[in-house]
Amino acid sequence: xxxxxxxxxxxxxxxxxxxxxxxxxxxxxxxxxxxxxxxxxxxxxxxxxxxxxxxxxxxxxxxxxxxxxxxxxxxxxxxxxxxxxxxxxxxxxxxxxxxxxxxxxxxxxxxxxxxxxxxxxxxxxxxxxxxxxxxxx
Length: 137
Description:
- By secondary structure, the chain is mainly α.
- The protein has helices at residues 9-23, 25-34, 41-47, 53-65, 87-120, 130-136; strands at residues 39-40, 69-74, 80-85.
- It has one domain (9-136): Winged helix-like DNA-binding domain superfamily/Winged helix DNA-binding domain (Arc Repressor Mutant, subunit A, Orthogonal Bundle), CATH 1.10.10.10.
- Helices cover 63% and strands 10% of the residues.
- It has a three-stranded antiparallel sheet.
- The relative contact order is 0.10.
């Protein structure tokens, strides 16, 4: 088994693109919402608070393109379309659940660290504050 830091440089860009897709906010929330269920568009829209219809459409299309979500369109009137996780989508969801659990378990500590960090910079964003950049040197 290869170590995590042993890789070909030609692998970096495709892997980064995959991680960017599966790590974005809406993809993770949609993978979680779908779980083991088959859902229609409106049900998914209700299950993911704050997502716009356009962002839901774009994210579902990208997840389908990547083989993580299966879309089934029924030729009836009115049209009926359902979404479910593919086998790859289910395996990705299994990998994300422990990370989500870790985030929930460590949220308070991270928020406290952010408050301490921000107060050390006088409430300003450190990337915009030259005095914070001096602290790094």
